[in-house]
Each structure stands twice: as structure tokens, then as C-alpha cells.
Amino acid sequence: MANTLIQGATVVTAQETRAADVLIEGERIKEVRAGIPARAGDKVIDAKGMYVIPGGIDAHTHLDMPFGGTTSADDFESGTRAAAFGGTTSIVDFAIQARGTRMRDALDTWWKKAERKAAIDYGLHMIITDLGASGLEDMDDMVREGVASFKLFMAYPNVLMVDDTTIFKALSQTAKNGALVCMHAENGSIIDVIVARALAEGKTAPIYHALTRPPRAEAEAVHRAIAMAEIAGVPVYIVHLSSEDALKEVREARDRGVPAFAETCPQYLLLSQDELERPNFEGAKYVFTPPLRPKEHQPKLWEGLKNDHLQVVSTDHCPFCFKDQKILGKDDFTKIPNGGPGIENRLQLIHHHGVNLGKITLNRFVELTSTTPARIFGMYPKKGEIAPGSDADLVIWDANAPYTISVKTHHMKVDYSMFEGYEVLGNARMVLSRGEVIVDGQKFLGASGRGNYIKRAARGGAWK
Ligand SMILES: [Zn+2]
Q1: Ligand 1 center from residue 316 Cα (angstroms)
Q2: Hey, which residues does 428 pair with through a beta bridge?
Q3: Rounded distance, CA 295 to CA 151, Å?
Q4: What is the Å distance from ligand 1's center to 402 Cα?
Q5: Segment 41-91, tens digit of pLDDT
Q6: pLDDT tens digits for 256-309?
Q7: Residue 51 Cα to ligand 1 middle (Å)
Q8: 179: alpha, beta or left? (left if phi > 0; alpha if psi -120 to 50)
Q9: Which of 40, 319, 331, 447 is buried most deeply by CB count within 10 Å?
């Protein structure tokens, strides 16, 4: 492969913003400095007036995921392609251990889902549903395979929820193997009682999905998860944090020096519970867990991002089509497949609503969407950085490009957008994955199956 030289750019990392050229040799970055001369045979990309940022890392996606008798609408082919268009060059998806089976079986299943399909690099978390007799051994086995993080559910009783015994054992095992436990923190037992009560009262519309999952049920579980991690002496990562109540628990723990981390998602920063009241069942498009909250929570979450009480923005991309999937819950909100699409629009939304509107800096934007997820999930500095030796996963970002988000133009295989009609300033102009241009404007130049599995390191380095 010929060398590629990106010339005249403003390089933006989590640390700094500076004028520089970026020389790429093969799949990696060779040099970053101003005034690198082009040599004969170099492919030169003119990036004058553009930012070059590290490719986005979405640490929370659900491609080709079975849920309630259906499957999320994007597989690894369409999902990673859509991600690339939005400037995301790595994802970490979730393999799910079926109860009573070995984690190895789930890993094999998810590797098969991804191979020959993924257009960008991908890692996998393992969802633990059952530790059984060999679960702790299985966890060590997964860590050796580069599955350096596990997710456990405190919600969805009888489906995914595990008890505190299981959570505490899993946490304790990570003290030995260095993996990170991610928690879906909602008190599922309480929520189930409230849900049953609502259904008995004939409350079946989508809005009851939000009203039956109170913020305090999230805060309680976050508190408990952090307490258990503290007792086990390990860090913990709260996924898709949605409310001020839950944020307070994380902030309080971090103020005491506890290595508690949390992510939020664009939907919690920009959309509110009111969306679930849309007429003609369209509220179902906004049914996912935790639910959208009253809009007063949004500025608190932005403050959390700014002040490092929240460390990561991911998407929890889990699309279900409105027409033939969301409709399964027409007469009962509990039957609506839980999830929404977002993998393509994360950078656009956080750049516009965060940076352009003055809530976070450009460097913090890079940190939240790329560098910190790389660190926390054991991919740094291979991913999430612009420096010699790092993978040449780069986005040439046009901060002045106007873009209107719409189902009519998005690349996700789903029949609606949660952000339909949103106008943003700032979009990916060109996207490189390991040195290869995979997106150029509206053209996809990558190939299905070119994405590599990312073998992630335990003890990613975001804690001591
Ligand atoms: Zn999720």
C-alpha cells in the first residue's frame, strides 16, 4: 500500500489542537507534524480547513441482536457501514451468553455474525446471564480472547437479570483477571411490579414504558452496583446512564475516589419523555431502556459530560423497524422491542449540540467519543489517538458542513430516525480505517468483511 499524506489539517486530539500533516504508512500512522513533504507515489489528501480527529469509537451497539422474538434491524454489514458514514471506525458490540451455555458458544456465535460482514473494526463485550459451575473460568477464558469487559443486567427479570450474588462474584473475578464489569443499572424487580400494576389498570400505551421505570429505580441500582464494586475492590462502568438521579450516585462515588465510570447516549442528552406521547403509536419509536426522562435531566447530563462525572458517549444502537417490529407492542407497551437507532449520528449530534452550542470543547468531544472509550475498553493507543504507531483510523471532519438528519438519507437499515429533521453543522467528509479510505463524502469505498476483530487488553489503563 502506498503511503498516504493528509496535508494542511488541524489535528484535534483529546489533548490538543494543532496545525499538522499526518503521514500514514500501511495501516498505521507514521508521523504527525507540520510540513511533512509529499514524496513520489504518496497519495495526498488535502485537508485544508478541516479537522482530523481520531475515528469514533462506539462502545455500545447491538447489531444482529435477538430480542423478544425479533432481531435488531442492522446486522454487522449495514450497521458498521452506517457507523462509518458517521465517522465511527470501531465499535464494541455485545455477545449474549444464553442461560445454561458456555460463554465460548456465544463468542463463536457473535464472531460468525461479524465475520465477512463488518466494514470497520469491532470488539465484543460478553453479557453474562448465568455463572453456573464454570462461569468464573469462562470469564478468564474470554479475557484471554480479548473480551476484556462483561455486562450484567440488574433489569429484565427471568430474561437477562442476574442477582447480587452473581454480580458480586463476577466483580470479584475481575479483581483477578483485570476485566471491567459494565452494568445495566435499573432495579428490575421493582419495575416489574409497577409494570404489572399499570397493565392491570389498562395502561398499555408507549408512554407507560417511561412512567413505569422511575429514575429512582435507576439511581438505586447504580448505587448498589458501585457499592458492590467497592466491596470487591474493582472499577465498574455504568452503561447508558439516563437521569440526574443516577448521575448523582456516580458523581458522589467519584468524588470519594472510587473508580466508577459511566456513559450516556445522544438520546438522553437531546430527547425527552414527551416523545413517547407521539400520536398513532409513534411513541414506540422512542421505547428503549432506561427510558427517556423529563427534559430537566438533559442539562444535568451535559454538565456531567463537561465535568467528567460522565466519561463516554455511546449510542446503545439497537434498531427495530416501526412498521413490522415496534408494532408488536401495539396493544401492550411491554411487547414493544426495546431499542432505537443511533450508530450513524453520534458524532454529528455531539459535535453540534456539544461543541457548537458551547457545552463542551472540541478536545472533550474527541475524548468522549473516541479516546476515553479506547482507554477504558483496552484499545488505547492502537485506537483513539493520532500519534505514530496508532492505527490510521481517522476522520476528516468538516466542522462547517450543514447536514440534516433523516431516514431519507441515513444508511441504517431502519424505517425511521429518532432525530428526524435535526439540522447540524459538522460532518465527516472522509473516513479512514487502518489507512484505507472507506467513506468519501456520500460514497462508501470500504468492503464488507474488511473489519478486524479487536483483541482488547484487560486493565485498559483508565484506573490504577
Ligand atoms: Zn444496550
Answers
A1: 5
A2: 397
A3: 28
A4: 30
A5: 999 999 999 999 999 999 999 999 998 889 999 999 999 999 999 999 999
A6: 999 999 999 999 999 999 999 999 999 999 999 999 999 999 999 999 999 999
A7: 30
A8: beta
A9: 319
Half-sphere exposure of 17 (CA within 13 A, CB side): 10
State the distance from the centre of ligand 1 to the C-alpha of 34, rounded, in angstroms: 41
Cell of 293: 426522562
| Structure confidence at residue 462 (pLDDT) | 57
Q: What is the pTM of this model?
A: 0.97
Going from the Cα of 38 to the center of ligand 1, the distance in angstroms, rounded, reads 44
Q: Cell 472507506 appears where?
A: 438
Alpha carbon of 173 to ligand 1 centroid (Å): 23
Helix (H/G/I), strand (E/B), else coil: 192: helix
How many angstroms separate the CA atoms of 156 and 339, rounded? 14
Pick the closest to residue 253 from 185, 316, 191, 189 (CA basis): 185
And the C-alpha cell for 445? 469505498
Cell of 284: 414506540
Rounded Cα–Cα distance for residues 384 and 369 (Å): 9
Say if CB 148 and CB 116 are below 8 A apart. Answer: no
> Please, is 239 exposed, middle or buried when counting C-beta atoms within 10 Å of its C-beta (0-12, 13-18, 19+)?
buried
**In this structure, which amino acid lies at residue 146?**
G
HEC-encoded secondary structure of 79-134: HHHHHHHCCEEEEEEEEECCCCCCHHHHHHHHHHHHCCCCCCEEEEEEECCCCCCC
Q: How far, in Å, is the centroid of ligand 1 from the Cα of 428? A: 25
In this structure, which amino acid lies at residue 236? V
pLDDT score, position 463: 62
- In angstroms, the CA 211 to CA 215 distance is 9
Distance 24 CA to ligand 1 centre (A): 34
Exposed, middle or buried: residue 43 (CB in 10 Å: 0-12, 13-18, 19+)? middle
C-alpha cell of 409?
438519507
Fill in the DSSP letter of residue 189. H
How does pLDDT run across 306-337, given as a tens digit for each residue? 999 999 999 999 999 999 999 999 999 999 99
CA-CA distances (angstroms) from residue 364 to 38, 142, 312, 379? 31, 32, 10, 18
What is the Cα–Cα distance from 455 to 54, expressed in whole angstroms? 19
What whole-number distance in Å separates Cα of residue 238 and Cα of residue 346?
A: 19
Cell numbers that stand for 254 in this block: 467519584
